[in-house]
């Protein structure tokens, strides 16, 4: 296990320090040693976070074939460790939709199964400070616990792209991240609601459980209908105002209930919070023009000067 932290306080006094508790789990199975061959075995019932991006599997064989295809066609990255190498493969479907496979290779060349997981690379970059990252290479898990700099909102999420970034990014006082919640269920309401942001295990007083599973309530400030090019499923990309915190969500139209989606309406959802760590100059390199789907006041909000 590796622990990295950057904060204004001692690591031992970091608020609600995540490193002291066991790793949260989403759909992980026990590491499985394999003789030079990767296989993937999903938990039962099927992981709802895949459904959030419009992908479902009729059986275990279909999941294995899909994961093997990601392993073949995904863009490879790796992160070297003292006792081995963490390998990542990212297959991008467009519109920010991705699927990752991650496996760990020990120095003797032994392959250990870790994970195949869905992802969405958020459009907006957010700054987290202070922060702490806990990583287990063998389990393929990297969890960040920190606070959104402008909103001072606590977040704890699973990092998708640890194999893409260099160690220099983990030496910064601030992390630049792209956060997005993959919703397993959501309900749209007509009237604004009071902000709610609470982790599953905070609600159940369960320490060391699924901390990156959150329940939220907020108001929609932007949305766009997108389509998964693989399955054809209609999805919705949203920006939700949760008090001073702005969070992107991906919601499958098939799991969306309530009234018709629209700006100013409310949303209640259960999500898996995941994100991508970016390099400091990623915003300049990834500039694609003016974002027409976000209200102008949201752009000005990002230019607020802290006291």
Q: In a few lines, what is going on in this structure?
A:
11% of the residues lie in helices and 45% in strands. It is mainly beta and 307 residues long.
Based on the model shown, name its key terms.
5 helices; eleven-stranded mixed β-sheet; five-stranded antiparallel β-sheet; 307 residues; 16 strands
Written overview of the protein:
The protein has 307 residues and is mainly β. The chain has helices at 48-52, 60-73, 200-204, 282-285, 296-301; strands at 2-6, 32-34, 75-81, 84-94, 97-106, 111-120, 126-136, 141-148, 154-159, 175-189, 196-199, 213-227, 234-242, 245-252, 256-258, 266-278. The strands form two sheets. Strands 1, 7, 8, 9, 10, 11, 12, 13, 14, 15 and 16 form an eleven-stranded mixed sheet that branches. A hairpin with a 4-residue loop joins β7 (126-136) and β8. The longest helix has 14 residues, at 60-73. It starts with a strand and ends in a 6-residue tail after the last helix.
Structural class: mainly beta
Beta-strand share of residues:
35-45%
What integer value in Å does the Rg equal?
A: 19 Å
> Which sheet architecture does the biggest sheet show?
11 strands, mixed
Work out the helix count: 5
Say how many strands there are: 16
Question: Could you give the order of the helices and strands?
Answer: EEHHEEEEEEEEEHEEEEEHH
What is the first-to-last residue Cα distance?
Answer: 37 Å
- The low-confidence runs, each spanning 5 or more residues with pLDDT under 50, are 7-46, 204-209, 284-288
Portion of residues within helices: 10-25%
Shape summary: globular
Mean pLDDT: 79
């Amino acid at each position: 296990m590796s622990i990295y932290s950057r904060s204004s306080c001692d690591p031992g006094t970091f608020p609600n320090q995540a490193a002291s508790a066991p790793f949260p789990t989403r759909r992980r199975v026990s590491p499985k040693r394999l003789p030079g061959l990767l296989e993937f075995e999903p938990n039962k019932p099927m992981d709802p976070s895949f459904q959030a991006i419009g992908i479902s599997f009729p059986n275990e064989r279909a999941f294995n074939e899909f994961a093997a295809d990601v392993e073949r066609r995904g863009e490879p990255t790796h992160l070297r460790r003292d006792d081995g190498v963490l390998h990542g493969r990212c297959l991008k479907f467009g519109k920010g939709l991705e699927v990752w496979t991650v496996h760990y290779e020990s120095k003797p060349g032994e392959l250990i199964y870790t994970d195949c997981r869905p992802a969405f690379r958020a459009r907006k970059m957010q700054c987290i400070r202070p922060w702490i990252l806990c990583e287990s290479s063998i389990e393929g898990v990297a969890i960040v616990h920190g606070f959104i700099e402008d909103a001072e909102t606590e977040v704890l999420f699973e990092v998708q792209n640890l194999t893409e970034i260099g160690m220099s990014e983990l030496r910064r006082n601030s992390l630049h991240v792209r956060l997005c919640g993959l919703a397993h269920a959501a309900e749209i309401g007509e009237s604004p609601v009071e902000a709610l942001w609470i982790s599953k295990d905070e609600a159940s007083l369960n320490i060391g459980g699924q901390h990156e599973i959150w329940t939220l309530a907020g108001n929609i400030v932007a949305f766009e209908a997108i389509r998964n090019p693989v399955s054809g499923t209609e999805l919705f990309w949203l920006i939700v105002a949760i008090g001073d915190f702005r969070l992107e969500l991906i919601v499958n139209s098939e799991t969306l209930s309530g009234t018709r989606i629209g700006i100013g309406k409310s949303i209640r959802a259960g999500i898996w919070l995941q994100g991508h760590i970016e390099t400091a100059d990623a915003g300049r390199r990834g500039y694609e023009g003016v974002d027409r789907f976000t209200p102008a006041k949201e752009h000005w909000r990002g230019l607020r000067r802290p006291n």
